[in-house]
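Subgroup meeting minutes
Present: P.N., E.W., G.H.
Scribe: E.W.

1. P.N. recapped why we're keeping a running log of single-chain structure predictions: easier to compare across weeks, and new members can see raw inputs and outputs side by side.
2. G.H. added today's entry (359 aa).
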Amino acid sequence: MDLGPHIDRFVRRFAEVEAALSQPNVFDNPQKAQELSKEYARLKGLVADGQSYQKALADLAENRRMLATEAADPELAQMAKEEIARLEADQKRLARAVQAGVLPPDPADSRNTIIEIRAGAGGQESALFAADLYRMYTRYAENRGWKCEDMDSSPSDLGGYKEVIFEVTGTDVYKRLKYESGVHRVQRVPATEAQGRIHTSTCTVAVLPEAEEVDVEIKPDELDITVCRASGPGGQGVNTTDSAVQIIHKPTGLIVRCADQRSQQKNKARALTVLRSRLLERRVAEENAKYAAQRKAQVGTGERNERIRTYNFPQNRVTDHRIELTLYNLPAVLEGAVDPIIEPLMANDLEERLATLQS
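Output recorded in log:
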């Protein structure tokens, strides 16, 4: 792909947005101003990457000429080879950043995200693995400077979770975490296994971009809202008042429960947030289903009930089955070092989208 015309387009549009933001009345429309500010920040990075990419190309050409003309001087030739290796790596990285900018941005990428982890097959071992995944994502969020806030949970008897729902807020949260939706499989020897046999358990992870009120309209008469007393740990402020809220969306049958806040109103607001996000996800899935016939030749359906990743404790192995990526650093991954998996998934997604754009 010739990136020159795209970089020129980024530069022109950046100048237009910069001029628009400098107008005195730009903030008369706060929503428009916010959109322009986001586009400005995105284009500023793209212009910088584009200019760095073009400089890397020029420097590469110069060093290759130097290598060809100074081949008789071993010292200069070695310096040129080292510089070429560095510049080639920079060129590849910067080209990927510019190519990503060619694609239209997903509006959901910058949104806060709701993560729902549910124990699947495997009983108590599955619930314990759900707690491991919860810790993995919260540690990952901490490493990236994001904030996590619990929304609802259903603890199991041995310290795991039958279900845990929490919100992650920060920059580009959904952009990075959206690849985590699916079935996660663990293979390990449970603490209660006397024979040392390896058990296989699963958990499902749903990653939902937080929906705004303008995305999904929910009519009050479509809701059946009940309140009750929260159960489980949480202290007297939670467990002695009718603060837990359950909402049933009558048209779809979706049920959402939120009990982690002391205030009934806060729980209601959070439950509505989860409901909107689930309804938005359902609507997007229905739209995508219209194009399913075009993807029959591909393996799998892309639904969340497919296994996407295996965590094998005896082999210290993590395998992502979508891109056949295997890492042998399981403890680090479970402590939040998920970027070595997420970044190849992002790169693979970029390549597929670019191939679609060019076809």
